[in-house]
Each structure stands twice: as structure tokens, then as C-alpha cells.
Design a protein that fits this description.
- This protein is an alpha+beta fold.
- It folds into three domains: 226 residues, Immunoglobulin-like (Sandwich); 180 residues, C8orf32 fold; 212 residues, no CATH class.
- 15% of the residues lie in helices and 35% in strands.
- The strands form eight sheets. Strands 1, 2, 4, 5, 6, 8, 10, 12 and 13 form a nine-stranded mixed beta sheet that branches.
- β12 and β13 form a beta hairpin.
- α4 packs antiparallel against α6 and α5 crosses α6.
- The radius of gyration is 30 Å and the shape is globular.
């Protein structure tokens, strides 16, 4: 039985305390009222800045690839730091691909006042002149006068046409706790419409251990109570894609032909393969006459690396994730991963090689073996079917034959190798018969490496002048990319690699051709630091130019570890430094070497010509490696991380410190 409004208001007044003005929950939309009333009788979670009382999403398919989504959200603002939750964000594709049909908001303040936001007009996200589509469009609506104690509610209605089909995915956890989270696929509810013959798929992933109990009806709904907030301040964690709970939605419409079917990976692969092969016309931009397959591939790779530019073109509503024709890309000389891939496939096909697009996922997590058909890939490369081996490391042997994997967006990596972004990843080779899955071979990865040579001179005043030479393999520090992109290499080095005060300076002395991919990229700079040799009494410390940075704090002190501890870094760093002093000096840390689960390391410091002043020689080498601690062993990983960080602190502090001798 519902309490009379007058009695409920009296009870609430007692709860909020003497002199407070009760909030009238009837001023909120009807769907928000029961959640506000129930939460008023509970104690908010401790240490939270806001509390999501309800986060509900209703999704329906209305035919021809169109998905409609209604979002209902009500939040209690608990602290001043939680005021940002008075702003509601919606992502979109723009270019007419997604439209916000309705956006309403309510701010029921602690003093009883109500502020409203009502926007019933159609909003087109990223309405650019060329109709381009970006995956990074966001629209936001901010409620006025949000304060501590406010109850804010939002209601949105969005119409969505994804160029690749009616699919979606969403995570559940936020930075604040959630009292009730719901998602439901709606067959008939007002503005939704039912479509005959359409199968709905709703699947959950990574719920345990985050969500031990949930109300799940496969293909219909997911409802969860009392979701924890995401852990704050935890570093060395796995990517959310492979770790945090998520829900995947698919609408399988047999009448929809303009996008791939998500009935199975095989169906998706055959559709993707057909789109690429139909657009793989030979451009004739590179002379392949008389060349064998390997020499021909090297010529194609060199031609594209020299003449083509990678640009994040994203999507257009008419072609989705389908490339432009190779002929058009050959004319424009730029494109994104799908465009450069179709161009490479076209030229490789003229060498008699079988051509196949290969879907990959890089940087943002990795594809898991039991992933449902979805839009989980974020990259495409080329797969070339070989009748016999070319003796290259990036070849994979599969039940469907032997394939050579080539990433045309990465000209710095030679044919037969792949960058570290592909290390340990599963890829899907798209063929006319379906999907062929393969693991990228470890031997195929070109390990990133940096070599730094420093020659400098320190003065008694503390002024340090030094020349630094960087030799970079596989774009380890982003130097080659900076030189190829904006061309502001000097500014990039000053901003990211050389710690300088405002009175310091960096001057570019020389650089190699960033488009000469036959050798590592080389840069030489001259740097001046007014206090690069900082003295305190009879000791001094050099600035850490050319050495790797300090690992971050892994988490807040006194907090238990929630995430697994995951560090995936296989690269190398070599440093040689020579610094002359007008003073007689002695290194504080002459030698330190060893192994941690995260790296092997070796440091030496020695002084020559001690009678004339001193030439300090510094040598450091490290090779980083993978390390993983899954629950319940994550606290062990935290302990090992702290030990590794203490070692690096000692090297970067004591290793660069000297004692000034009389």
C-alpha cells in the first residue's frame, strides 16, 4: 500500500533533519519517484560523491537498421565533488547517423526547489558538411543550480543508425555506486515498434567477480542491484574490455542487406571479404613487373610508406566500415586502416597472392575466444594467402591455409613483422567461406627499443648543457610519428622527453628522414637546463634526461586491491651518458643490477680523470616484460610493483647523485 503524500512528506522531514525543507518526490517524473523514495530510507554508500539510484536503458529495433534507445537516470548528489553528475552525456556517431529526439532533465534541490530542462527538438550530433561520421561525438546537457543534496533525473530518446548494423554494447560500472541498473529489449512500448522475424540477442560478459548475482533473462533483460563504484587510483590494470562487466545487444534482421549479419562470425567475415574484394582494383601506382612475391611486397610497402598518409577518416553513413575503392585511395594518397588495407590488397593480388581483410583489435584490449559476434574489432590489416612460405615471421599456418599478415598503417615496421600493438592478439581472417581465427606469432613482433646517448657538461652554478641522441625502433617514444605528423618534433621532445623549467631550452640539431623506414629513426637535440645539476651542500643530482620515467603509484595507500595487476610491456631501453664536471665528484650509486617481475635492469656509474675534475660515465639497460596477477593473487602483484618502483626510484635518484669531494 502506498503512503499518503502528507505522511510521506512528514517522514522525509524527520529524515533530513530539523530546519531542512523536504524534497517533494512527486515533482520528479513518475518513473523516478519510487527509486528516490526507496533510497531516502537507506544510508548512502560511504565515500561516494554521488549515488546513481536508477540507470535504465530500453532498446528496441524498428526496422531497416534503426535502433531506438530510451535512457532513464536518477542520481543523488552527495558531495560538492559530485556536482559534475548534474550533466548528462550521450555518445553518438554524428553525420545524421544518430539523433537525440528528446532530452529532459529535473533538478530537485535539497531546499525543495525544482529546476527543469526540456528539449524536445531533434538534435543532430556532428552535423558536418561532408556527412562524415566519427565515433567520438558527444552531446551534453547540464542542469542549472545543481548542488549538494540535489536529486537529478534525465530522460533521453535517441534514434540510432549504426553504419555496420543494429548492434550495441555498454558497460555497467561508473566512478560512483549504482543502486539499480536495468537494460531491457522492448518489443512494444509506446514509441517502440515490433518487427516481425527479427531475433534479439542480449549477452553479458565479465559479470563475476564484479556482479555475483544478477537477474538475467537471455535475449530480454538484465537487472542488477547495488553495483560498486569503479576502484579509484588503481594502475597496472587490464583493459576494461577484458575485465569489466558489459552487456552486448544484437538485432538479427534477415531483411537487412546493407550491413553484415551478426548471426555468426562466419556471416560477418564473408560479408566483409566481399566488400573488400569488390573494391580491390589495381592502381598501377607501383611497378611490379618481373618481381617475385616477396620483392613485390617490399616494393608495395615502400611505395605506400613513402607516398601515403594514414588519416582517421572514420565512417560515412553510406559505406559504414567499408573501404573506398583502391583506385580512389591511390588517387588521394591517404586513408584510414580500411582504405590503406584495400589498396595494399589490390596491389598484392596482382602478384598472384590471395587477398583477405583481417579484423584485429589493438591497444584497447584483446579479442577473447568466446566473444559473441559484435563490433569489438577496432582495426583492419591485410592477410595474404600463400601457396608456399616466404620465410617471414608474420606468417600464420591455419586450417584454411598459410597467410602473411601485413599492417599497411605502420610503414615503420618492415614486411614480415608487426608492431607491438599486435602482440598476443587474436585476429579474424575474412574469407569467402567464413572466418579463420589465428594468433599473431610472438616472433612476428618488432620489439620497440630506444637508445639514448648523452654528452654534457655541468657547471658549479648548476647549469647543465647536453647533447642527446635518440635512436628509436618501432616508434618507441613517438619520435618518428611526431616528425611525420605535425613536424613539430622539437616541441614534442621539449614537452614529453626533456624535463625543463621555463628558462631552459631545447634546440633540434638534426634528424633522419622519418619516411626512410629502412633504418631506425634518429634525432639529435641540444638541451640547456639552468639547474640541471642541482647542488645541496656537498651533494648534487643530475636531471634524468634520457632515462625511463618513474613507474606511477599503483594505488591509494591503505586500500585493498580490486583489479587484477596486469603489466604488458616488452621493450628495451639503453642509455649511455657522459657528463664532465669542474669539480671532483664521486657517484653515490656505483652499480645496481637485477630482475623484477616487470623488468631486468643494470646500472653502472664511474668517474674518470678525478684529479682534473671528473668525467662521470653512466650506463643503464633495461628490458621490460609481461607480468600478471589475477585474483586472489593481486595483492602479491601490488607488493612486487612497489618493490620495482623503489628500485627505479633509487636508480633515478641515487644513480644520478654525486658527492662533491674536497
Amino acid at each position: 500500500m502506498n503512503c499518503p503524500r502528507r505522511f510521506f512528506t512528514f517522514v522525509l522531514a524527520l529524515l533530513v533533519g530539523p530546519g531542512a525543507v523536504a524534497q517533494d518526490f512527486n515533482l520528479l517524473p513518475e518513473w523516478a519517484r519510487p527509486h528516490a523514495r526507496a533510497a531516502a530510507l537507506e544510508t548512502p554508500p560511504s565515500e561516494a560523491d554521488a549515488w546513481v539510484l536508477l540507470d535504465r536503458t530500453e532498446i528496441a529495433y524498428s526496422g531497416d537498421g534503426e535502433v531506438k534507445t530510451r535512457r532513464l537516470k536518477v542520481i543523488q548528489i552527495l558531495t560538492e565533488r559530485g556536482l559534475g553528475y548534474g550533466t548528462f552525456f550521450l555518445g553518438g556517431l554524428g553525420g545524421g547517423a544518430s539523433k537525440v529526439k528528446r532530452l529532459k532533465g529535473w533538478n530537485l534541490r535539497a531546499d525543495g526547489a525544482l529546476e527543469k530542462l526540456d528539449q524536445d527538438t531533434v538534435i543532430t550530433l556532428n552535423a558536418s558538411d561532408d556527412g562524415s561520421v566519427s565515433t567520438r561525438m558527444v552531446t551534453a546537457a547540464a542542469l542549472p543550480r545543481v548542488a549538494k543534496g540535489s536529486l537529478v533525473a534525465f530522460e533521453s530518446l535517441e534514434v540510432f543508425h549504426h553504419p555496420m548494423g543494429p548492434v550495441a554494447s555498454t558497460g555497467l560500472l561508473e566512478d560512483v555506486p549504482i543502486r539499480r541498473w536495468e537494460m531491457e529489449l522492448v518489443l512494444k512500448a509506446g514509441w517502440f515498434s515490433s518487427v516481425q522475424g527479427v531475433e534479439m540477442k542480449l549477452e553479458t560478459r565479465h559479470f563475476p567477480p564484479w556482479i555475483p548475482k544478477a537477474d538475467v533473462v537471455p535475449g530480454q533483460r538484465v537487472m542488477v542491484s547495488n553495483l560498486p563504484a569503479l576502484p579509484k587510483g588503481e594502475e597496472a590494470r587490464p583493459h576494461a574490455f577484458n575485465n569489466l562487466p558489459a552487456v552486448y545487444v544484437r538485432f538479427l534482421d534477415p531483411a537487412l542487406k546493407k550491413s553484415p549479419s551478426f548471426q555468426s562470425w562466419d556471416a560477418q567475415a564473408t560479408w566483409i571479404h566481399a566488400q573488400y574484394t569488390a573494391r580491390a582494383q589495381v592502381t598501377g601506382g607501383v611497378d611490379l613487373a618481373g618481381k617475385n612475391p616477396l620483392d613485390g611486397l617490399k616494393a608495395i610497402h615502400a611505395w605506400m610508406g613513402r607516398d601515403f598518409t594514414y588519416k582517421q577518416v572514420y565512417l560515412t553513413p553510406d559505406r559504414g566500415w567499408v573501404p573506398e575503392s583502391a583506385a580512389e585511395i591511390g588517387r588521394k594518397k591517404y586513408g584510414d586502416c580500411k582504405d590503406l588495407t584495400v589498396c595494399l590488397l589490390a596491389e598484392a593480388g596482382s602478384l598472384g597472392l590471395g587477398i583477405h581483410p583481417v579484423l584485429a583489435r589493438i591497444n584497447e584490449g584483446e579479442m577473447e575466444a568466446d566473444m559473441p559476434p559484435s563490433l569489438s574489432f577496432n582495426h583492419v590489416i591485410a592477410g595474404l594467402r600463400l601457396s608456399r612460405t616466404l620465410g617471414l615471421s608474420a606468417e600464420v599456418e591455419t586450417p584454411g591455409g598459410r597467410f602473411l599478415l601485413v599492417d599497411p598503417t605502420d610503414p615503420a615496421t618492415p614486411i614480415g613483422k608487426l608492431s607491438s600493438a599486435h602482440r598476443g592478439r587474436r585476429v579474424m581472417i575474412c574469407t569467402e567461406q567464413g572466418a579463420i581465427w589465428a594468433m599473431v606469432p610472438d616472433a612476428a613482433i618488432l620489439q620497440p627499443h630506444i637508445r639514448v646517448e648523452l654528452k654534457g657538461a655541468a657547471e658549479p652554478s648548476g647549469l647543465l648543457t647536453a647533447t642527446l641522441r635518440f635512436v628509436e625502433t618501432s616508434d618507441k617514444l613517438g619520435l618518428r610519428s611526431a616528425a611525420m605528423g605535425s613536424g613539430k618534433l622539437q616541441e614534442f621532445i621539449a614537452r614529453t622527453l626533456v624535463d625543463l623549467p621555463a628558462t631552459g631550452s631545447v634546440q633540434l640539431v638534426s634528424q633522419s628522414d622519418p619516411r626512410d623506414f629502412s633504418r631506425p629513426f634518429e634525432v639529435v637535440v641540444k638541451a640547456v637546463h639552468p639547474d640541471g645539476f642541482h647542488r645541496i651542500g656537498q651533494e648534487g643530482v643530475l636531471v634524468a634526461w634520457g632515462l625511463p620515467g618513474m613507474p606511477p603509484l599503483i594505488q591509494r595507500a591503505g586500500k585493498p586491491r580490486i583489479h587484477p595487476v596486469v603489466s604488458r610491456s616488452a621493450d628495451g631501453w639503453d642509455y649511455q651518458g657522459e657528463v664532465t664536471f669542474p669539480l671532483r665528484v664521486q657517484p653515490v650509486l656505483a652499480e645496481k643490477a637485477g630482475e623484477t617481475p616487470f623488468r631486468s635492469y643494470a646500472w653502472t656509474a664511474s668517474v674518470e680523470n678525478l684529479q682534473q675534475g671528473g668525467l662521470l660515465r653512466l650506463v643503464y639497460h633495461q628490458a621490460r616484460k609481461d607480468a600478471v596477477w589475477n585474483p586472489p593473487e593481486q595483492e602479491k602483484g601490488v607488493s612486487e610493483w612497489k618493490k620495482d618502483r623503489a628500485i627505479m626510484r633509487q636508480i633515478l635518484e641515487d644513480g644520478l647523485s654525486v658527492r662533491v669531494l674536497p
